[in-house]
Structures are given as structure tokens and as C-alpha cells.
Structure prediction request, 302 residues.
Amino acid sequence: MFLQSYFQEVLAVFNHSPLFFLVTIALVSLCIGSFLNVVIYRLPVMMQNEWSHECKLLLADDLKQSNLEAESKVFNLSKPASTCPKCKSKIKAWQNIPVLSWLFLKGRCGSCDNSISIRYPSIELLTAIASVAIAHYFGPTALGFTYLIVTWCLVALIFIDIDHMLLPDQITLPLLWLALLASVLGFTIEPAQAIIGAAVGYLCFWSVYWVFKLVTGKEGMGYGDFKLMAVFGALLGWQALPMIILLSSLVGAVIGITLLSIQGKDKATPIPFGPYIAIAGWIAMIWGEKITSSYYQFALGH
Prediction:
């Protein structure tokens, strides 16, 4: 009861002062963005370590148990502490302030003066800007907070897929359950529409995957793409999926071909498709109905 009463008071303050709400979301999202930098780097490494460990367990008869124990080091989202990749100095708390610490240190390590990639503050800023857009459009509502969580997860998925061509189940599956639960709680669409949307979202790319594989013998996309489409189907309904597919395909084709040309790579080089699905789906969350309505008006000549 106390937590419910406190939450209602906070919402009342946010509703009374929209600017305070947006500033709060911006500050919180900057911190979330800082954490997402950790997730983007560490989660794929954690998955690789887990796969490696499982392989070693299967081959345990051919390996000494002492070697297995010596190689198993704690590596997760909280341990070990963040360090400079060059000098291994532990990053202090004040050096972890989103964006500001990078600017104060002029993009360099405080111990060895090693250059720190601008990608870290960029992800923090991207997270904050996208979150403020969601907060501004939906306000302090259950739908708005649901879409904030989705936005944070999409940022992590985009950069993990760019780095590793991978959309981890550790993020996509909880997102799918969140979307279905949000429908049951009445935050988004009707539960029946969410279930149908999730199924259609998964099956539309699954079907394309198998047709492409049977025809060419190659894999055109990964299972993570199917699951991400299922997330948007559960959030927005199957009606939003054609627009998401069209937007992601157009953006993916233009950006992908441009990047391959700039980098001088062959056009057959695989490119991650997850970021384009995520961007198209995020756009659909905010402006999907307006885009669809404008399209039909244009198509019908009205």
C-alpha cells in the first residue's frame, strides 16, 4: 500500500509538471545508457564464456578438471569492475558519470591518457534522446513506461547486433513476455491481438528464412530477427507489421549498401538486420498510426 501510494504521488507530480518529468527521464536514461554500455560489451562475452564452458564440460574426459576450474573466472554485468582496456586501472565512480565524465576527461583515460571511444557517451545520449521522445509523446502513463523499457532494450540489441550479428534471447524473450503481459494488464492492445501479432511477427520472417534457405542453401537472417518481430507484433498488433517490414527493408537496403560501398566490401557480405527492425519498430510505436493513415490517404488520393 505504501509503495502504491508513493507511486501515485510521484505520478501526480509528473502530471503536474511535464518539464520535471522529462528532465527526470533524461537523467535516468543517461544512467541507463551508461549501464547499457556494460550490457552491450559484456553480455556477448558472457554468452561466449558460457558456450565455451559447456563445450568443455562435454569434453571433460579429455581435459583436466583443474584446468577447467583455473579458467572459470567470474565475469558478469557487475564483476569485474570496469577498467581501462589499456592500463587496466579501475574506473572511479566520478569517471562513470554519463557524458559529463567523458567531456571532463576530454575523451581519455584519467590514468594513462588512453583515448576513450566517443561511442560510450553517444550511446548514453541516444538512450536519453529516445527516452525523452517516448516520455514526451506518451507522458507518465503505463504505456509510456512500457515503451521506455522497450526503448532501452532496443538500444542494447542494436549495438550488440552491430558488433556480433546477434540478438540475445536474454533480451528478446523477456521483451516478448513484457509485451504480452502489458496487453493482459490493459496497457497496450487486447491480449488476443497481442498473441496473434506475436505469432504473425515470428512466422512472417521465419517463412522468408526457410524459403530463402531452400532456394539458395544459405541463411538470410537469424532467429533473433524472428523474435524481435514477434515483440513488435505483440506490442502493436499484426496490422503494424507490414509497415515495420517495409521501413526496415528500405532503411536496411540503403544504409547497408552505402556502408558496404564505403568500406569496400563485397555486396554478399552479411549485414545485421536487427538494428533496422528495431529502428522501424520504434518509429511505429510513436508514429505508426499517423504513417499508416497518411499512406492510405495518399493511396486513395484523398
